[in-house]
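@channel sequence for tomorrow's demo:
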Amino acid sequence: MSEEVAKEEKKWFGTLLSYAKGSGGKLGISVVFSMVSLIAGLVPYYLVYRILDRYIAGTLDRAYVLNLSLAAALAYLVKVLCFGVSTGISHYVAFNVLEGLRLKVADVFLKAPLGDVTAHSIGEIKGVIVDKIEDIEPPLAHVVPEGAGHILLPVVCFVALAVVDIRIALAALLALPLGLVFMMLTFKLSGKNLTKYQEANARMSSMIVEYVEGIEVIKAFGKAGVSYEKFAGSIRNYRDFVIEWMESTWVTMKLAFAFMPATLLGVVPVSILLVGKGIMTVSQMALSVMLAMSMVISMAKIEIFSNGLRQMQYTVLEIQKLLKIKSLPEPEKEKLPDHYSIELRDVHFAYDEKDDEVLHGIDLSMPEGSFTALVGPSGGGKSTVAKLIARFWDVSGGSIRIGDVDIKELKVTSLADIVSFVTQDNFLFSRSIMENIRLGKPDATDEEVIRAAKAACCDEFIRKLPDGYDTSAGEAGKRLSGGERQRIAIARMMLKNAPVVILDEATAFTDPENETKLQESIANLTRGKTLLVIAHRLSTIKNADRIVVLNDGRIEAEGTQEELMEKSPLYQRMWQAHIGARNWAAGNVKEA
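structure tokens (generated this afternoon):
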């Protein structure tokens, strides 16, 4: 373990409270109230001892009993009120921490290179943001304040027992060393498997997400599919691992729970012996037993809480690994471009340092207001070029400039305002259709949203939904086609009205009836804007100012439709294949 990692493990709790949005200091107040609550809970025991002492002496009267009973009730009220205040404050802090952590993880993912985000499975990310962070709440809200109180209580009880008789105090600790030995053995055995447990849990979560997302395919091909077997296998493996883990710690854990809080094992026989010798009174023996029983509860709680604390520490350290994903570097002061031409200068790119390059020295200029199309075989690097312009990743070599500014000199939010990006796979959030479109321009009026929807040819089908524009996209997603979802994404892009527009096969799922209208709307919207289109249907980009043919990460040819038909054999083959496919689709293939 490196020194840096060791330091992080020691200061993990301070790191956790740094996400409390300024409320972390209140946890100390919660601890104080918890301690007062537990100490107040001892007062009735002392008052019972006083009553019992008077009773044995034959000097007990009704007024004395009434006064001490009222005092005991008041002490109990203080105990309940202080406990309520303590847990109220600790829960407030805990939920602030949860909110801060979730917002931080989301912010890290937003600013990180896309490859670093996609390197983590959906199940792993869901497990962190939803499950692991949520798991921090119970120990933070209960273990920390209550645990501090339960550590103090045995100390106070031990001191009180020592005041009665030091031999009784030492007898209360008779079984403690043995309990500690078994508890440490349990932690040692458990610690070896804790990392494996988290990994098994993450794999199962990931398989569950994959299974649910692919349920349509699985239903079509039955349970024999690979996805179902992976899903079922991950659950079986998780079950077998947990059972084996529990079996390995069952004996030591039960022995720890048996001996750790066994204060009465020594207190009862020793106190009986002292009473028999006349060294201790019966009332003192009763007080000793009550104090010892208080220690039992606290020491049992400490056992449970210590495990929760270890789990919280592990979770925080796991979350920290995600929070350490490097963000795309941003300048402290940015220079905004005064025009929106795009230039790629000797751009090289590899998704990972260990991987081979996918782009090899791309030089490409797109003047402001021009229409540039990227075409080529699958895997040629078209989408990679588009995503580099949007800065989903940083180039491995070379530079990309918008206007006279390198995009690395722009803040991520500023670049997002400049570039609109629409892909084939468009995600709709579980909120109304109106709000999904409004994401393109958060301050847009309803009228502006509807105008954009009409331009994207989706107003008609939206109005047919149960609640029209107010229909949740989550519910509508069950009845929307891929083309309809794509048109909503295009409406979002139209509403944003950014100066640079990138369309990655944005009308791929659109039906022929609406495609012409949509192409006209896009053409009107993008007039005067810098437009980059990635297309497989070459007929949609034949009027582009420049068509760039990418093949194997290099520019093989560029020019207008006419120029490429003359000088690019690859483009000629692609065009002939496209025309042949259109004829085939139209049923125009002639028999030989």
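heads up for whoever presents: Strands lie at 342-349, 359-366, 371-375, 397-402, 405-406, 419-422, 500-504, 530-534, 546-551, 554-559.
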